[in-house]
Specification:
By secondary structure, the protein is an alpha+beta fold. 26% of the residues lie in helices and 47% in strands.
Length: 106
Amino acid sequence: VRETENLFRCFIHPSYKIDDSSLQVEVEGCLSVPKYSFKVPRYNTILASWFEFDENKNLVYKEELLSGMLARVFQHEIDHLDVKCIVDRAENVNRETKRNLLKSMR
């Protein structure tokens, strides 16, 4: 959901394609793993697509080129829909640490 003009938008069946193959590593947090932050590589620019309802309640297809933080957030949220956790994407986190973090989420 993204706030625009004091309205919230709902992204139905969101997906993305890589528009720029350059990865940018930034520190991210996630409410699924509170109190932890991880260095996570994400694509800096993506072509996002989704469906949404227009003002007449018709389902319409949308595409938008996203970059920077908005592209990062979009990818992060899609990871949740794909049953991936931030720990799965984190850099420099060994398998044992990942396993322990995921166990603590149960």
